[in-house]
Amino acid sequence: MWTFDPGLSRIPGTLTTYQRIYRLIRRVPRGRVATYGQIAELAKASGPRQVGYALHALPEGADVPWYRIVNARGAISLDPGLGHGGLQRALLQAEGVAFDARGRIDLKRFQWKR
C-alpha cells in the first residue's frame, strides 16, 4: 500500500477537501463503517456526493479504506454488477461487519462513532 496525496492546498498549512475526506476515512476502524453524509459533515465537504467523488478519484492501491463508507441506509451504493459492490461487501464481512437479508448494515451496531 502507498499513501495517496491528492495535492497540496493553495493556502499553505491547510488541507484540500479531498485530503480532509481521506484523512477521516483512514480513521474509521476495522469492523466499523461511516456514511457518506457523516464523512461529508466532519470534513466540511459540500455534501455526501463530494465524498463519493473523492472516493471515485482514488487510484488503485491507495491506503484509504474506501469500502468502509456506505450510504445512509447502511447499504452499499456501488453496483454489484460491476464487481466493486461484491468486493466491498466481502471486505466488510472479513472485518466482522454483518449484513441483513436486505443487504444492509445495522448502523446502530456498526457505525463509527467519532
How would you characterize this protein structure?
The protein is mainly alpha-helical. Helix content is 38%, strand content 4%. It contains 5 helices and 2 strands. Strands 1-2 form a two-stranded parallel ribbon. Helix 1 crosses helix 2 and helix 2 packs across helix 3. The protein is globular. The chain starts with 16 loop residues before the first helix and ends with a helix. The mean pLDDT is 88.
Give the SSE layout:
Blueprint: H1 17-27, E1 34-35, H2 36-43, H3 48-56, E2 69-70, H4 84-94, H5 107-110
Parallel strand pairs: 1-2
Helix pairs in contact: 1-2, 2-3
What strand line-up does the widest sheet have?
1-2
Q: Assign an overall shape.
A: globular
Individual helix count: 5
Rg value? 14 Å
Q: Give the N-to-C terminal Cα separation.
A: 25 Å
Extract low-pLDDT stretches. Answer: none
Q: How large is the share of residues in beta strands?
A: under 5%
Structural class: mainly alpha
Q: Biggest sheet, in brief?
A: 2 strands, parallel
Helix content: 25-40%
Q: What's the order of the H and E elements?
A: HEHHEHH
On the 0 to 100 scale, the average pLDDT is 88
Task: Count the E strands.
Answer: 2
